[in-house]
Amino acid sequence: MQSFWERESFAQYDLIVIGAGITGLSTAASFKEKHPAADVLVIEQGTLPLGASTRNAGFACFGSISELAQDRKTLGDEGMVSLVQRRWSGLQKTISRLGEESIGLLKQGGYELLTPKTSYYLDAIDQVNQLLNPLFQGSVFQHATEKLDEFGFRNTSDLVYNPHEAQLHTGKLMKNLSRYCGQLGIQIITGTKVEQIEEETGHAVIRAGQLEFLGRSVAICTNAFTPQLITEQLNIQPGRGMVLLVKPDKPLSFRGTFHYDEGFYYFRDFDDKIIFGGGRNLAMEQESTTEFGINEIIEQKLIQDLKEVIIPETHFKVEMKWSGIMAFGDTKAPIVKRLAPRQYLGVRLGGMGVALGSLVGEELATQISQDHF
């Protein structure tokens, strides 16, 4: 039950965004930048954003050489280049909006570890570099196997270096993006689960418990949780990703971001610690879930790889472990579309929400503006 005052001042908006992750907050920010006088509301079901926006490993990346080589096979050359261009544009949008310091950006480059079984990806470097040259004005991937001894990795035959890859502080990014939205005058409500969206003449009705909101437009930015809210079949498959925070007992011999096994495993330095995640490919069916939790088989594999590949002959302690929920589909392209006259979707980021979130938000805000403002 709402009061007259609540209905007058808290229930009606020009745009209502469902989901306060990177995509949702970016959508609200882009719309408010275009329409400073508009009333914009963001509704988030968690106390903090659910999903992966505050639960990722903090990579500012757009794809390793093995990932992009595979993308060429499934998407073709143009599709692969388009994918990289969108991810890169999204990262630059975030950086320009918030600033490097505000997101803790560290430009230390990135590497991919290859084994004798995957060293054939070295053959893809020249062709991928040629395709990406117009975007980066130079070679993206370089041979860096000579650094293996310096880094101390084991069971690794080759390294490929990418100078454009960076790392960021996920907490700072989300905190400052939320703060930026507040400075724009965007209202954010947390701990409120949207249960139903209905179309009416001139607006959409959003029901959340005993609360009811009216929006001229609604942007649904709930990624893997979208099927819980709408009935349309969208080919959205949740994917749970596990992350460890590891404290070795001696200084690290490497700096930067690192991938292996076609991007399914990834680690980076953070001060004197390691943030290490992945392993979803070991249990795809079990990890296709929206339930947060730890898969013991994956945890054991991550610990094994720490001992045998990343920091061999080094004692360490796992200080924290957590999981985030991503969304995947039959293509790596996100879903950005009009669902109904007043409803829009920006979902299925394919595990690349840090890179794509700002761009998807800009695209959603632009489409909504063109249709209704």
What does this protein structure show overall?
The chain has helices at residues 4-10, 22-34, 65-98, 125-136, 148-151, 170-184, 284-287, 296-310, 353-372, and strands at residues 12-18, 40-43, 59-60, 110-114, 142-143, 158-162, 166-167, 187-189, 196-200, 203-208, 211-220, 237-248, 257-260, 265-270, 273-278, 316-328, 335-340, 343-347. With 373 residues, the protein is an alpha/beta fold. α2 (22-34) runs parallel beside α9 and α3 packs parallel to α4 (125-136). The longest helix is centred in the N-terminal third of the chain and has 34 residues, at 65-98. The strands form three sheets. Strands 1, 2, 8, 9, 10, 11, 17 and 18 form an eight-stranded mixed beta sheet that branches.
Q: Would you spell out the secondary-structure blueprint of this structure?
A:
Layout: H1 4-10, E1 12-18, H2 22-34, E2 40-43, E3 59-60, H3 65-98, E4 110-114, H4 125-136, E5 142-143, H5 148-151, E6 158-162, E7 166-167, H6 170-184, E8 187-189, E9 196-200, E10 203-208, E11 211-220, E12 237-248, E13 257-260, E14 265-270, E15 273-278, H7 284-287, H8 296-310, E16 316-328, E17 335-340, E18 343-347, H9 353-372
Parallel strand pairs: 1-2, 1-11, 2-8, 4-13, 11-18
Antiparallel strand pairs: 3-7, 4-6, 5-6, 9-10, 10-11, 12-15, 12-16, 13-14, 14-15, 17-18
